[in-house]
Predict the 3D structure of the following.
Amino acid sequence: MGINQDLHRFRKIVKGEIRENLRDYLWRTDLFGKQGEKTVTIPVPQIEIPRFRFAEEGGVSQGEGKEGDSYDPDSGENGDAIAGDRGAPHFMEVEVSLEELAEMLGEELGLPYIEPKGEDRIISKKYRVKGIASVGPETLRSFPRGYKRALKRQIAEGTYDYRKPCIVPTASDMRYKALELVPTPQNNAAIIYMMDVSGSMGEMEKMLVRTTSFWLSTWIQRFYKGVEERFIIHDSDALEVDRETFFSTTTAGGTAFTPAYHLCMEIIAQDYDPSTYNIYPFHFSDGENGSRQNEDTEKAFSLLEDHLLPAVNMFGYGQCKTGKGDGQYLLELSKHFNLSETSAIIGSKVRAAKLADKNDIATTLRHFLRTGR
């Protein structure tokens, strides 16, 4: 009991350390490869159990020395520092589940639980053990149960010799797992990421997108049995790619948003029925919508209003600030959909946030996820 209590207390302290520095952990790039795994390893400052410590022997006014000598326990003769003799901060690595990290993230940012839209209409059929039967397929044979029955039978018959133990199960000894088919309703979700890969989106901007999308996925996956992710890159054209290509592609082309929204609509129409899927599109760009900005922006707003928003749980737009300054799309989007601190909570499915540097990641996550859609 004492060990379990100490372990529980230790993990509580560890979680407190992580929670206190959570915003720093949001930027940890080594977590990206861990998505899909149950646990991740995180370094935390060395935690020491409080205890009495005895002073070292000797001290001021003891030992050799003369009046006027300086006292510095970390220095060598004549006050010169000794290389390598000073301590450095100690860290220990602890395993924390991604679910626990997501829970801490939700608590830190004040995120509500996501409530899937509609009913549980996707039915997955699973088998569970209903009991034990005397007949069944060999794939379901329970050898331990058959062995035990054979042993009991031989002991009852007096044929078992403990000096030369030999258990020979017969067909009547065999037992099999009896299964039943259980329909299980479940909610599924699809996350569709879109990113502007024109030349103005540099490595820092992509890292901001990658970090934000990792935590979006980690949070959303807490609430659904199955989550699928799709990736769209675009400049003046749009293309569906895999995750690795999504975060490594750069082009020198112009920028247009409507091709990405068209492709997003096609993916939803082909693979994700809005009546059975909870759909989350997220778009990231620097906000410079090409040379025909006004025309393409109006078309993009029309596609959002007439096609995308009716089909999705919410639509998130994150604008990365580049060296050229702020693009206009975030401003125009906010004006068109009348976005404000209150309207984002009341009813609009559109979320928009500025993603200028790593300090904006937490704010962007809170803005995208705070209504629990």
About this structure: Residues 63 and 88 are 28 Å apart (CA to CA). Residues 1-48+88-109 form one domain. The two ends are 42 Å apart (CA to CA). The chain has a mean pLDDT of 77.
